[in-house]
């Protein structure tokens, strides 16, 4: 019997957090949300597909920007309430055109920007 996306534990809105990590470097790229259908689409197409809460529609990463996430491995945690997608990232993962969404740190009580946007 195959994997059923509905077996995962979704929140009251029917969503589960999905963390994208670069499959080669291990760098954490971003966090977004998936519903059961986005999970199924991701597994079927090997193109990471999220659920956009603001647009209330599917969002295939890179569909408009070209910064695609090709699925390398799909994992979920022991509680089945969080997903880890290991990806082959093309270009920036963040909508700010940075490699990762996690480019801001707090050091000695100050906000520090760790990276600049990628150049096109």
From TrEMBL:
Gene3D superfamilies per record: Phosphoribosyl-AMP cyclohydrolase
Binding site for Zn(2+): 78, 94, 101
UniProt entry keywords in alphabetical sequence: Amino-acid biosynthesis, Cytoplasm, Histidine biosynthesis, Hydrolase, Magnesium, Metal-binding, Zinc
Pathway noted in the entry: Amino-acid biosynthesis; L-histidine biosynthesis; L-histidine from 5-phospho-alpha-D-ribose 1-diphosphate: step 3/9
E.C. number: 3.5.4.19
Pfam families: PRA-CH
Residue span, Phosphoribosyl-AMP cyclohydrolase domain: 30-103
Cofactor binding: number and manner: Binds 1 zinc ion per subunit. Binds 1 Mg(2+) ion per subunit.
Reactions catalysed, as given in the entry: 1-(5-phospho-beta-D-ribosyl)-5'-AMP + H2O = 1-(5-phospho-beta-D-ribosyl)-5-[(5-phospho-beta-D-ribosylamino)methylideneamino]imidazole-4-carboxamide
Family: Belongs to the PRA-CH family.
Subunit structure: Homodimer.
Designated name of the protein: Phosphoribosyl-AMP cyclohydrolase
Source organism per UniProt: Shimia sagamensis
Record gene name: hisI
